[in-house]
Write a structure and sequence with these properties.
The chain is of the alpha/beta class and 342 residues long. The chain has one domain (8-339): L-arginine/glycine Amidinotransferase, Chain A (5-stranded Propeller). Helix content is 23%, strand content 24%. The protein is built from 9 helices and 17 strands. A hairpin with a 4-residue loop joins strand 6 and strand 7. The chain is globular.
Length: 342
């Protein structure tokens, strides 16, 4: 097992895809489909790109769980990392989402698959905080260092600091929150567009953290265990160079290897010396997904990593995981525990 790089992922094969009008106001990376291009054509192009991502990851030796989504009211369902994360020790988190039309992306069948195929002990569901306007959009809002147990978080209305602290208490992470803005002063909507943390390398746009003290603290924390930093420019960030993810695959001969999955656009934006640093620890796997990137996310956003121990084939789950539902205001009270099926 690799703490940072999961060997399995969940992908959603969305039959309907368009840039979400409910998220355009605060997602500066989002763009409209080409003028005159129908929603059907956009969806078909995106579907081919989703299949290409699944095929490329399988070819790299990553275990891929694909779930079909034919619901035409979920334009962003291709991005499951915003509602789901999994963690060593059998822990799963379900998150509160900012856009109202994204909240029904959460799927019981995905959770059932995780419980049947992997060792799941506890599911903590924070989605009950949505009516109070409190959001934390998973590993979009947080970029997690699973090795040093740090949750790097760019502050925004999609990343409430109170539920961040609660998540960190529940899952054993240190919160490291900071402001991040582009050159026009617009806040970064999700941390995972400006930062990617691998086992031995991190890619991050440190210059987009305006506070020099906080910027230095992030740099120091990222490198304390010897991790190398690839500093990205804002231009590279706009090409989604920060929206990459380290995974653990296998060679055709069965040997374990680490890969850095990113889009072709992101790969092209990197300088040769930056690629050389990444390739000291990872093989770069890039996939061309220009249609999906219209929605303001890239390869990392498409991947919900599975950081759980696999259950032996044919072995039934010995018990029902505890489900802890958080549906109160974290400013005033603790959540309530609910044991039973989710």
């Amino acid at each position: 097992m690799s703490a940072q790089a999961p060997s399995a992922v969940v992908l959603i094969r969305a039959g309907r895809f368009v840039p979400n009008p409910h998220t355009a106001a605060d997602n500066a990376f989002q763009a409209d489909a080409p003028q005159g291009q129908s929603a059907d054509v956009t969806s078909a192009m995106a579907l081919a790109e989703m299949d290409a991502v699944a095929d490329a990851l399988r070819e790299a030796g990553v275990r891929v769980h694909v779930f079909a989504d034919e619901d035409h009211t979920r334009p962003d369902s291709v991005f499951p990392n915003n509602w789901l994360s999994t963690h060593a020790g059998g822990n799963v988190a379900v998150y509160p989402m900012y856009a109202s039309n994204r909240r029904h992306e959460r799927r019981a069948d995905v959770l059932e698959m995780l419980k049947s195929s992997y060792r799941v002990q506890t599911i903590i569901d924070y989605s009950g905080l949505e009516p109070d306007g409190i959001f934390l959009e998973g590993t979009g809002a947080m970029v997690l260092d699973h090795v040093s147990r740090v949750a790097y978080t760019a502050l925004s209305h999609r990343a409430d600091t109170n539920v961040l602290e609660r998540f960190c208490t529940d899952f054993g992470y240190e919160p490291m929150a900071f402001d991040a803005v582009d050159s026009a002063g617009v806040p970064v909507y999700h941390t995972n567009v400006i930062a990617c943390i691998g086992t031995d390398v991190a890619m991050i746009a440190l210059d987009m953290i305006p506070d020099p003290v906080r910027r230095a603290a992030v740099r120091e924390r990222l490198t304390v265990n010897g991790r190398r930093i690839v500093e990205l420019t804002e231009e590279q960030i706009r090409d989604f160079a920060g929206n990459a993810v380290e995974l653990r695959g296998r060679t055709p001969e069965g040997r374990s290897r680490h890969i850095m999955a990113m889009s072709t656009r992101a790969r092209r934006s990197l300088h040769p010396e930056q690629v050389a640093v990444i390739e000291e620890s990872c093989d770069v796997v890039d996939i061309d997904i220009p249609t999906i990137e219209l929605a303001g996310g890239s390869v990392r956003c498409m991947i919900a990593g599975v950081h759980l121990d696999r259950r032996p084939t044919g072995v039934e789950s010995p018990r029902t995981p505890a489900v802890r539902a958080i549906d109160d205001d974290p400013h005033t009270a603790d959540g309530r525990d609910v044991a039973g099926d989710d």
